[in-house]
């Protein structure tokens, strides 16, 4: 088409262009009433109200709209004397600039930025960011219902409140500042009736209130102490702090009180000696009350005059005792003393009845002691024939005599370790026997000298010997010299013959001399007529050793 008809054109061939010629290097201008209104420069920038557009779209000289690609997606910028073309710039560098920068994929979740730069180019900053990962307003005072906010967020109304809704659900959290009685901070749930309805007019109302004096009320908007917990009938179930009726009942410090009907309560009273009494019943300290626990202020010692019984389910430890570092060389986390029963007793149907742990500087996780001939420092008891009374994972050290009905080793079977155990019995004696053995090889003269440890002579006496030839008879085999200075000599065998030897001795160390084994021992008076295993002799369990020595435990410890 040779020309462009201003009355309209029909395009049937290739795309047609309205503009300047190739390599003409001239802008395209559109004017009305003889005044240029729009100009497209040779770089493709469009100016509305300007002949020198400096961005893709520049309006009225200082208004700029432009867009472009970034490594994180396309962006668009709307600015007043401010634009972005890969870097932030101003149309007029003598004036301040502000802009709204939009980028849905900037990589940091900052989809909307409100930006300002001062006239001298200083303090370029984001005034606010709204985004999927971060939203904030920087360095500004925001007012809601307040035209001149004095703080970063100031809400002005007769009653200020914030409601946190879950969509259109009627269930909501409410944070309310103040009411018609003065300053308050209220926490609630579910919606209150629309204002100007009075406080607590919603379906559920307030859950917690903080007064201007610091008192906290749970279930009440008028707390009478530092912490005041009330039921729906306005009776307090927990209360800390000075009580409104302290002059008559002596309450100071702690109270679990019901005020509506005068029923019994538990309170506390600190006397002149520094003891805090926890009591039941009303009246004065000496009239009509029973002290059931005291706490001494000087050392924190707690005294319970009567029985302390915990019943029901305990989700954690029934009793926990902690001795902090520096509390003393012999301080115990839990210390129990009894003249007639258990000092400490623990039972569990599913886990550990008693657990003791010790740190790097401790000495024992669990310690039991007794100076009574009929008592035991620690007892483990299991009536199930397939159970165990005690299990030790690790080494066990006994400084006294270990007595047992039987014993041996119990290991995984070497040939079938997954399915069987292998058991061996101890070798036992009526004396404190030590056993040593070995293999000696005779020399060319049919003799051999066996050397024993240097402590052998000091430890052993009443020695016994046994020699056995290996591979062939040795009729003349004999002990040529007994043990002296840690050696003995064998003779009478064939040259290079191997001899199996065994030596036993009785202990003569100081502990063994002081604790010789009594092979036949009369039973103490309390155990006479009783058996270690009465069932093996056709006797009743009432005649057991346990019933004689520990009758309370035999009865179940009750």
Topology record:
Elements: E1 28-32, E2 35-40, E3 46-48, E4 57-59, E5 63-70, E6 73-80, E7 83-84, E8 88-89, E9 97-102, E10 112-117, E11 125-130, E12 136-137, E13 142-144, E14 153-155, E15 160-165, E16 172-179, E17 182-189, E18 205-211, E19 216-218, E20 227-230, E21 236-240, H1 246-249, E22 254-256, E23 266-270, E24 275-280, E25 290-296, E26 302-303, E27 408-412, E28 421-425, E29 433-441, E30 448-451, H2 456-459, E31 460-470, E32 478-484, E33 487-491, E34 498-507, H3 510-514, H4 545-549, H5 551-554
Parallel strand pairs: 3-4, 13-14, 19-20
Antiparallel strand pairs: 1-2, 2-3, 4-5, 5-6, 6-9, 7-8, 9-10, 10-11, 11-12, 15-16, 16-17, 17-18, 18-19, 20-21, 21-22, 22-23, 23-24, 24-25, 25-26, 27-28, 29-34, 30-33, 31-34, 32-33
Low-confidence stretches: 191-200, 243-253, 257-265, 281-289
Kindly estimate the percentage of residues that lie in beta strands according to DSSP.
25-35%
N-end to C-end Cα span = 115 Å
As a whole number of angstroms, the C-alpha radius of gyration is: 48 Å
Shape: elongated
Helix tally equals 5
Spatial strand order of the main sheet: 15-16-17-18-19-20-21-22-23-24-25-26
Mean pLDDT metric = 74
- Tell me about the largest β-sheet: 12 strands, mixed
Q: Which structural class should the secondary elements be placed in?
A: mainly beta
Helix content: under 10%
Number of strands: 34
Give me some keywords for this one.
mainly beta; Immunoglobulin-like; 10-stranded mixed beta sheet; 5 helices; 4% helix
Structure description:
The structure is a single chain. 4% of the residues lie in helices and 33% in strands. The protein has 558 residues and is mainly β. The strands form 7 sheets. The chain has a 12-stranded mixed beta sheet with strand order 15-16-17-18-19-20-21-22-23-24-25-26, with no helix packed on it. The protein has a 10-stranded mixed beta sheet with strand order 1-2-3-4-5-6-9-10-11-12, with no helix packed on it. Strand 10 (112-117) and strand 11 (125-130) form a beta hairpin.
């Amino acid at each position: 088409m040779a020309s462009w008809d201003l009355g309209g054109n029909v395009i049937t061939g290739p795309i047609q262009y309205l503009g300047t010629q190739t390599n003409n290097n001239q802008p395209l201008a559109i004017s009305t009433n003889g005044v240029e209104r729009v100009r497209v420069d040779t770089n493709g920038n469009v100016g509305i109200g300007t002949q020198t557009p400096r961005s893709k779209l520049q309006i009225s000289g200082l208004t700029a709209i432009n867009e472009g690609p970034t490594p994180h997606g396309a962006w668009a910028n709307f600015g007043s004397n401010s634009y972005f073309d890969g870097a932030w710039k101003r149309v007029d560098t003598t004036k301040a600039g502000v802009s709204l920068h939009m980028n849905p994929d900037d990589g940091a979740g900052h989809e909307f930025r409100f930006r300002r730069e001062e006239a001298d180019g200083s303090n370029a900053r984001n005034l606010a960011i709204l985004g999927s990962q971060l939203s904030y307003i920087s360095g500004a005072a925001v007012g809601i219902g307040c035209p001149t906010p004095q703080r970063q967020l100031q809400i002005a109304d007769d009653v200020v409140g914030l409601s946190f809704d879950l969509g259109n659900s009627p269930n909501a959290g409410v944070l309310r500042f103040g009411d018609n009685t003065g300053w308050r901070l209220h926490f609630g749930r579910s919606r209150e009736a629309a204002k100007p309805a009075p406080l607590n007019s919603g379906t559920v109302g307030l859950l917690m209130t903080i007064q201007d004096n610091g008192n906290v009320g749970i279930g009440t908007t008028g707390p009478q102490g530092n912490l005041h917990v009330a039921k729906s009938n306005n009776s307090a179930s927990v209360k800390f702090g000075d009580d409104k009726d302290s002059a008559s009942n002596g309450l100071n410090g702690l109270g679990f009180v019901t005020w509506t009907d005068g029923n019994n309560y538990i309170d506390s009273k600190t006397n002149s000696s520094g003891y805090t009494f926890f009591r039941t019943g009303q009246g004065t300290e000496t009239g009509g009350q029973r002290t059931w626990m005291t706490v001494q202020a000087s050392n924190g010692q707690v005294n319970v005059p009567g029985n302390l019984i915990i019943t029901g389910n305990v989700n954690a430890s029934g009793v926990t005792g902690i001795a902090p570092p520096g509390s003393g060389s012999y301080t115990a986390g839990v210390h129990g003393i009894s003249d007639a029963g258990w000092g400490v007793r623990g039972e569990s149907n599913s886990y550990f009845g008693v657990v003791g742990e010790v740190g790097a500087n401790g000495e024992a996780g669990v310690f039991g002691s007794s100076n009574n001939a009929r008592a035991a420092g620690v007892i483990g008891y299991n009536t199930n024939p397939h159970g165990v009374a005690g299990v030790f994972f690790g080494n066990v050290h006994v400084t006294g005599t270990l007595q047992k009905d039987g014993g041996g080793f119990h290991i995984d079977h070497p040939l079938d370790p997954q399915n069987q155990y292998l058991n061996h019995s101890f070798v036992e004696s009526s004396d404190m026997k030590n056993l040593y053995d070995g293999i000696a090889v005779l020399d060319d003269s049919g003799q051999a000298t066996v050397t024993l440890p240097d402590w052998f002579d000091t430890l052993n006496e009443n020695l016994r010997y046994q020699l056995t030839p290996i591979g062939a008879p040795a009729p003349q085999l004999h002990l040529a010299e007994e043990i002296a200075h840690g050696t003995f000599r064998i003779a009478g065998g064939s040259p290079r013959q191997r001899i199996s030897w065994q030596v036993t001795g009785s202990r003569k160390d100081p502990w063994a001399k002081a604790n010789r084994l009594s092979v036949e021992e009369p039973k103490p008076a309390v155990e006479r007529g009783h058996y270690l295993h009465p069932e093996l002799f056709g006797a009743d369990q009432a005649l057991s050793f346990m019933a004689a020595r520990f009758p309370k435990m035999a009865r179940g410890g009750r």
